[in-house]
Amino acid sequence: MRGLLTKDFLTIKNQGKSMILILAIGIIMIISGMNKTFVIGYLTFIASTFAISTLSYDEYDHGYPYIFILPIERKEYVVEKYLFSAMLSIAGWFGSGVIIVGVSAIRGEQIWSRDFGLQMLVMLLINWVYLEFLIPIRLKYGAEKGKIMNFIILGAVFLVAMGIQFLMKHNQGLLDAVERMIRSLQPAVACILTGMLILAAGLGSFCCSKKIMERMEF
Amino acid sequence: MNLDVNHIKKQYREFQLDCSIQIPEGRIIGFVGPNGAGKSTTMKAILGLCSPDEGQILADGRVIEEWSKKEREKIGVVLADSGFSGYYTVSDVCRIMKKFYSSFHEEEFRKQCKHFQLPMQKQIKEFSTGMRAKLYLLLSMSYDAELLVLDEPTAGLDVISRNELLDRIRDYMEPGGRSILISSHISGDLEGLCDEIYLIYEGKILLHEDTDRLLDRYGVLKATEQQYEKLEKKYLIRKMKGTYEVDCLTDQIRYYRENYPDIITEKVSIDDIIMYMIRGDRV
Which residues from B are below 8 Å from A80, CB to CB? Predict the structure, then answer.
């Protein structure tokens, strides 16, 4: 595991210039007064994209066979990818939060509130869902085909969402029932349910990724 | 380490691999054959990169899939078309290898890189084919692996570097308890290095012989049609229409020299044997 993590951190280190550029863009966004939640979401998303890019670097120039002749198990490779992605996304999320709070403090603005904390948490969770969805796709289809599959699946998700919206719009009873159900939930229960859903999705995603890697032949 | 590849079979559309190889401890085994014959597939099966449909691979009597990570450190590999991401430098590779292999000899590896003029801070993607070949061969020998699986390790190397690295491979065997499986398109490399040669063609082993025996006992007879008719066929392996009408490959060249002094005989190289075994007709 240490070897794989070292390998991925070195990959990220080699992208130093791009990271500095992204960070600079983030700081400009904060200074120019852009929506702070959006900036946190953006920087967390970019950090995750860097993590996902290590899969492309591994695949680059028929790299996979060489990785799997190293003394590692395929399951370990998958675990490391999830761990590394989580580490980088948390770093991006936490880092952007610290910068925002710092810049606001310098400006004498009061930013920290329960709502802001909640928004930050939602951004992190959305990002994890994105990663849970993206990792198995990248492993299964590789960098090039993976991008196409990504668009296809995102398109399908969009269509389903549109369908649900259409259904709600034309069925007031259903809309009311859903609203009543959401409102009846205690905030703590809602949090636990959301957490459990994300955890279950993560577990499903991990199992898919593990199976994909175990079946992969080079 | 002893490796026993026992009747492994693998089907890919129209290609079927069906192959057995023994790699005894202390021996260097050459693996030859034309492109697409099954050399890389066999090597990948040994390394667990593809799983055979049938058969098993035993390393020191144990199925190789059951090996722990620690035991997998005993295998050193060069793959013909795969390596670390080209975005790493050799220094990065050192840092990675240290984490993966407990017995990685970093100092010795750096010394060898300097000797073979591999820049430590240059990205691998900027290396020439020969430089990459040097890097991966040196890496495979940098952590006391007991089995080296080398797929085209000398491809792209100039004559001087190739000879130096072949010497390094020979020296690598000196401590004992080690074995090597090596494939190469440069048969001259194998003639001077290997103890045994396996020839694979269309997924099947066509020939397995000690290198000394191949070079000492194998030869070609160049006979006319009339001479061919009168020849003892028992020791002829393949025949081919050639310059002198019929060229025959034999594994008993002395017998024909002694008993048919009027027939021209020639020694053969491994390349000649490959060509006769694949292009020639069975006698």
Answer: none
* Residue B157 backbone dihedrals phi, psi, to 5 degrees: -85, 145
- Give the list of residues 6+ apart from residue B249 with CB closer than 8 angstroms, or none: B218, B219, B220, B236, B237, B238, B239, B240, B268, B272, B273, B276, B277, B280
pLDDT at A119 > cutoff 90: no
The 8-class DSSP code of residue B118 comes to -
A65 close to B (CB below 8 A): yes
B66–chain A Cβ distance below 8 A for any pair: no
Model pLDDT, residue B244: 62
CA–CA dist A4, A79 (Å, integer): 10
pLDDT over 90 percentage in chain B: 69
The whole-angstrom distance between A27's CA and the closest CA on chain B is 28
* pLDDT surpassing 70 at residue B266: yes
Question: What are phi and psi for residue A32, nearest 5 degrees?
Answer: -75, 0
Is this complex scored with an ipTM above 0.95? no
pLDDT in tens, A42-59: 888 888 888 988 998 998
Q: Which residues contact B151 (CB under 8 A, 6 or more apart)?
A: B39, B40, B43, B77, B78, B79, B80, B183
Answer whether 0.80 is exceeded by the pTM.
yes
Name the band, by pLDDT with cuts 50, 70 and 90, for residue A22.
confident
For residues B248-272, one letter each, b for 16 or more C-beta atoms within 10 angstroms of the residue's C-beta and e for the rest, the string is bbbbbbeebeeebeebebeebebeb
Task: Using alpha carbons, select from A118, A7, A97, A119 the residue that is nearest to residue A47.
Answer: A97
A2-6, A15-19, B7-11, B111-115: least confident range: A15-19
Q: Which two tokens stand for residue B232?
A: 């003892």
Cβ of residue A38 closer than 8 Å to a chain B Cβ: no
Q: Is A57 on the interface with B (CB under 8 A)?
A: yes
